[in-house]
């Protein structure tokens, strides 16, 4: 039971920091400022459902893509670790990550901002997609896969709840509190990135030395 709890905690911390629901709040508030309460809630619901569908597709089908292109999971761990390290560094500097959200891309989507840019790439960005593929590769049995999918679903429910409560949450945290929280999450992301990097590098080095 404890290994499952440990894996569930790893999934929660990894995906929470990469989806960054706290960092989603400011763009969500700015993009829905002209909408009514029910309309904003519909946008939040559609954005979280879109992000969940995207991450589920990559979690369940990512391995097939790797086999088709003959890409090893260890290579993804190394590259994913580097990507997460860069994302975590930018979060540590309290800067929004360029791999996650580009502010100019948020303009011109008056009709449907829920799918793009909120669902993709603000919530389900490259970092979150890479992380969920790596975590699924670490789930070696059905129990771990079930834990991963359950935590992923729960995180999107939490993200939706945070989005519909965005204005009060931002007012409670304030600018300083938001920056502190982002920096803490950035540090956690960098630690996870190092673990991913060396977990992928060690088997590659062993194979090279074995030859």
UniProtKB/TrEMBL annotation:
Keywords on record: Cell membrane, Membrane, Transmembrane, Transmembrane helix
Bilayer-spanning residue ranges: 7-29, 49-69, 76-94, 114-135, 147-174, 180-201
GO CC, one annotated term: plasma membrane
Keyword Glycosyltransferase appears in the UniProt entry: no
Coiled-coil parts of chain: none
Record-stated family: Belongs to the UPF0056 (MarC) family.
Membrane topology value: Multi-pass membrane protein
Protein's name in the database: UPF0056 inner membrane protein
Presence of the UniProt keyword Cell membrane in the record: yes
PANTHER family the UniProt entry points to: UPF0056 MEMBRANE PROTEIN YHCE (PTHR33508:SF1)
InterPro entries in UniProt: Multi_antbiot-R_MarC (IPR002771)
Localization terms from the record: Cell inner membrane; Cell membrane
UniProt cross-references to Pfam families, sorted A to Z: MarC
Native species: Anaeromyxobacter dehalogenans (strain ATCC BAA-258 / DSM 21875 / 2CP-1)
